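Progress report, Aim 2. The chain analyzed during this reporting quarter is listed below.
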Amino acid sequence: MSASRYTYLGPEGTFTEAALRTLPEAATRELVPMVSVPAALDAVRSGEAAAALVPIENSVEGGVTATLDQLTTGSPLMIYREVLLQITFALLVRPGTRLSDIKTVTGHPVAQPQVRKWLAAHLPDALWESAASNADGARLVQEGRFDAAFAGEFAAATYGLEPLVTDIHDAQNAQTRFVLVGRPARPAARTGADKTSVVVWLREDHPGALLELLQEFATRGVNLMLIQSRPTGEGIGNYCFAIDAEGHIADRRVGEALMGLNRICPQVRFLGSYPRAGVTPAEVGPARYGTSDEEFVTAADWLARCLDGRA
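Predicted structure tokens for the chain:
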């Protein structure tokens, strides 16, 4: 395995690259752009790279299905870190292009919902066609295949383009969450401001089946931060669920919730426990009454004394 190589969704100039460069270790790694999320993650699976940074969630459009599906299938991978990046777009064009000249535009599919209103107001007749990434859209504009691309303003210099319009966004404070993914190993150390990600499969479809999964968290006071269904590929109506829960697998309430899922589900894929981006332990509220590690220990001690006749 190349411990010095990190892959990311490329080509150069993507928001993913910008997010990756916020990590301190990026300065000492070889950063390799890949053509797709699957390609970036497959390089990790094969040992060609130590880790990959890929987008997983957008505050406007929700989960990035390409990443969720790749983490759900294939040989297991684990999340070790997350990065939040504020997203704002620029309309990149070849030098000399005016707004009235633009008939075709491109960008990543996740970008379109974030600029839809702006497009309707300023380029209502422009034809949109998706690109593999926002930076790839910029490359296609450079090659003359499209008139304009929505991408980060920082990508303009890389592709010899000009930002015709900047600071484009339909939603204020739009963010994308990226995750640093590696091969399975011990989870990152508990910080007190953590997140745990899993994928779970239903044993059978029946009334209340999803509620049974959620109760494993609710009864232990574990807050869920994301739940998204994804088709299993085994026929209409067959789904698995990607779940982000507040806390670390080493927290007793989280660990016991995962054990509960393991008992009732045919498959549980642990995707990692890792620090939450932009959150400190001081900002995390106390555990719900009866769900702290100390209270779990006290309850276990009480049970042991009952079994020993010492209650």
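The helical segments are 15-20, 37-45, 65-72, 112-122, 134-142, 209-218, 252-264, 293-307. The chain has eight helices and 15 strands. These observations will guide the mutagenesis work planned for the next reporting period.
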